[in-house]
Amino acid sequence: MTEVNKAPRPGDGPPRAGGWARLVTGRPRLSLLAALVLTALAVLAGSGVADHLGSGGWEDPAAESTYATKALEREFPGSQPNLLLLVDAGRGSVDDPAVAAEARGLAERLAGERGITGVGSYWQAAPSAAPGLRAEDGHEALIAARITGDENAMGRTLDRIAPHYRGAHGPVRVKIGGIVAVRHEMQTIIKEDLTRAEMIALPITLVLLVMVFGSAVAALLPLGIGIVAILGTNAVLRGLTAFTDVSVFALNLTTALGLGLAIDYALFIVRRYREELSGGADPLTAVGTTLRTAGRTVLFSALTVAVSLAAMMVFPQYFLRSFAYAGIAVVLLAAAAALILLPAALILLGHRVNALDLRRLFRRGRETAGSAGEAAGSTAWTRTATLVMRRAPLFAIGTSALLVVLGLPFLGVRFGTADDRQLLSGAESHVVQQHLRDGFPGTPGGGLEILTEGGATKAQYAAYKQRVAALPEVARVDGPLVKGGTGYFTVQPEGEAVDTGAQRLVGELRALNAPFDTKVTGTAAVLVDSKHAIGERLPWAGAFIAVVTLLLVFLLTGSVLIPLQAVVLNALSLTAMFGAVVWVFQDGHLSGALGFTSPGSIETTLPVLMFCVAFGLSMDYGVFLLSRIKEEYDRSGDHDEAVRHGLQRTGGLITAAAVILAVVMVAIGTSRVTNTKMLGFGIALAVLMDAMVVRSLLVPAIMRLTGRATWWAPAPLRRFHRRFGLSEGEAPASAPEKETAGV
Q1: Please, what sign has the CA dihedral across residues 363, 364, 367, 368?
Q2: 112 sits in which H/E element
Q3: How many CA within 13 A on the CB side of residue 31?
Q4: Which of 38, 146, 198, 448 shows the greatest Cβ crowding within 10 Å of its Cβ?
């Protein structure tokens, strides 16, 4: 017989959370006042944070394509136009004298604008003018230029000049496009959509919390914690912008996790506090017990979520790193608020936490707030647990098979870049880019550039150009344009700018021998380098998440098997999300209902982001369930009863938390930017599947099959856990040591 984890023994000392409980509840009014002051300062520090955030960050800063892009921007600004004016002659021709004169005048004005360089157009015989700037039907042509400066400076320049060029000018009409216009429009829309999402999510969340708690007072507490976490994270992000680039997309995660996790943590703590009150404890004792039990669980949950999000720091793209900054900050702030501010508020409220029972308006009688609903819910979850454990093999195999089938569409994933198709079809910059795709030869702005360094003769340049033109995926080669010892060629690939042929062409160009140094850049090259950077670092990120998660769950449970189960089942719970992302957003199913244009691919960084966020949230719910199962197992030593008790006590809570978080994510998913829509709806599906399928069915079925062996650990690890481990429950000092026969 092998000894399993022992309960605390006499002389082990007071619970380690006791001092913390006394600290945070000793002066509750002072704690709340300090929080109010800090929140006010956070509002001031974080105001206008969106104006300082970037809308790019998908490229690897150390990649060959990034080096070549910067060199071309420096030496040949006309080679890297990021601003396009689409000049439409209506029914006339762009070659009409009046149209040409007006267009040349617009180009000359644009060249004189502050912050603009490298202006070229179809009507100008300038070195920077590139072929392919005239539409095939002859009714449209382009003026191309480059806006200088960083992303924020580019946005300010665009805001300043756009009103003077957009619209009617004599015989022509002008629309504004280019990568700067796309990203600036995306940034503006995200800020507007975020405000709308908050206006949608907050009232619905409050209604759901009232339904969960019954008491309006109890319902307001989680909402307040969430608002504090969001405001604090905005201040953190604003401070980070002084040192590094931060993506505007991170604001969506701040809102979603700020509300979702704060509500999760507050739900767990308030629920446990009310249980202690209903058991006859006074408010101070109830808060102390809550912090020693549910408080520990919240701390572990926050650490597991933060670990999943921290894994994105491994990647070089600042788009992913920004979500790590925002996510870690909001998780830690939500946990801190739940463990410091919430206990202080509960001390001051006492039994009034059950005040304003709004559900009495809809039922007869005067039951204690929430008691009837909670009792009915507990009974339902007990029946569910009993059924699942009685038919454990059926539920284990059936749910696993379902999740695998739902994830099968991801096998057909195609990776691409974020472009104008992230925006609605009516967005001006999207309209311009679509006109380019449909009506212009090649893909203006979507070709490849070959930077040459070291100098060469005309004959060497000509020979190299012929070799490039002979490659099967090449439609046209232009150049070289040479300045000193540096030059560049422009290569138009056959087909789309980032399809498989264009990506294959990048490798062929890089492998081509030349009498000078060459570097390849362009949209397809950036995608190839981004995929390489992610693929190279993905195993390290996965290993980091797995190892730290295994350690944290072991510290919580003292088991070797449970951490392994947690990692595997959490990963399995994400299959439906990934399958839906491909089926809906790549393949375009439901694009009409959800209001987006499918680009036919998934942006390379999105699956990484969604995995880290969804895995962390799944661990959040897993820790809630496992901590309660462990508490009961420590108390009774009955494995099956512990699983039933854990699901009974947390099933309704986890489901309510998942529904509330899903509401927040769906509100984020109403965004007019496709990546944000994908993030919102994908995470919403993931948390619902995790709560309603994995936690409710698969976990209890698997734990029933593994039986008491679930809690086995070798002797050295048992000693390690007794010394360093934490769990939600505290068994009585006299509880007998438990043994597992035959293990």
Answers
A1: positive
A2: none
A3: 21
A4: 448
Strand 172-177 relative to strand 602-603: parallel, antiparallel, unpaired? unpaired
Q: How many CB atoms lie within 10 A of CB 569?
A: 20
Burial of residue 351, with CB atoms counted within 10 A of its CB: 0-12 exposed, 13-18 middle, 19 or more buried: exposed
Q: Two tokens at 205?
A: 């969340």
> Is pLDDT of 582 > 90?
yes
Phi, psi at 450, each rounded to 5°? -110, 110
Single pTM value for the model: 0.84
Q: What DSSP letter does each residue of 358-386 carry, written as one string?
A: GGGGGSSS-PPTTHHHHHHHHHHHHHHHH
pLDDT digits (tens, 9 = 90+) for 188-227: 888 888 888 888 888 888 888 888 777 778 888 888 888 8
CB under 8 Å to 700, separation ≥6 — which residues? 385, 388, 389, 392, 395, 643, 644, 647
Angle (CA) 96-102-103 rounded to 5° is 85
pLDDT computed for residue 129 by the predictor: 46
For the chain, the farthest-separated pair of C-alpha atoms sits apart, in whole angstroms, at 98
Q: Among positive and negative, which fits the CA dihedral 445, 446, 452, 457?
A: negative
The two structure tokens encoding residue 188: 């503006």
Tell the residue number behind the tokens 């700020």, with chain if given. Answer: 258
CA 330, 335, 351, 354 dihedral sign is positive
Residue 109 and residue 670: Cα distance in Å, rounded? 40
DSSP string, 561-626: HHHHHHHHHHHHHTHHHHHHIIIIIIT-TTHHHHT----SSEETTHHHHHHHHHHHHHHHHHHHHH
Would you state the structure tokens that stand for residue 384, as one six-digit string?
Answer: 């569910």
Neighbours of 37 (CB within 10 A): 10
- Residue 599, preceding bond cis, omega within 30 degrees? no
Local confidence band at 52 (pLDDT 50, 70, 90 cut-offs): confident
For the stretch 533-559, pLDDT in tens is 999 999 999 999 999 889 988 988 889
Mean pLDDT throughout 636-653? 88
Distance between CA atoms of residues 221 and 348, nearest Å: 12
The answer to whether residue 733 scores a pLDDT higher than 70 is no
Other C-beta atoms within 10 Å of 208: how many? 17
Q: Which distant-in-sequence residues (6+ apart) come within 8 Å of 308 by Cβ?
A: 545, 549, 612, 613, 615, 616, 619
Task: Work out the average pLDDT over 75-95.
Answer: 87
How would you classify the pairing of strands 448-453 and 739-740? unpaired
Give the DSSP H or E segment for 153: helix 151-165
| Torsion sign over Cα 598, 601, 603, 606 | positive
Q: pLDDT tens digit string along 470-498?
A: 998 888 888 888 888 899 998 888 877 77
Confidence of residue 444 (pLDDT cuts 50, 70, 90): low
Strands 602-603 and 415-416: parallel
Summarised one tens digit per residue, pLDDT across range 98-126 is: 999 999 999 999 999 998 988 888 887 54
Average pLDDT over residues 81-90: 90
Q: What is the pLDDT of residue 411?
A: 93
* SS3 at position 175: strand
The backbone torsions φ and ψ at residue 167, rounded to the nearest 5 degrees and listed phi first, read 105, -160
For the segment 518-529, the average pLDDT, to the nearest whole number, is 90
Q: What's residue 711's pLDDT?
A: 92
The angle formed by the CA atoms of residues 92, 475 and 468, to the nearest 5 degrees, is: 140
First CA to last CA distance, the chain = 6
The amino acid sitting at 299 is L
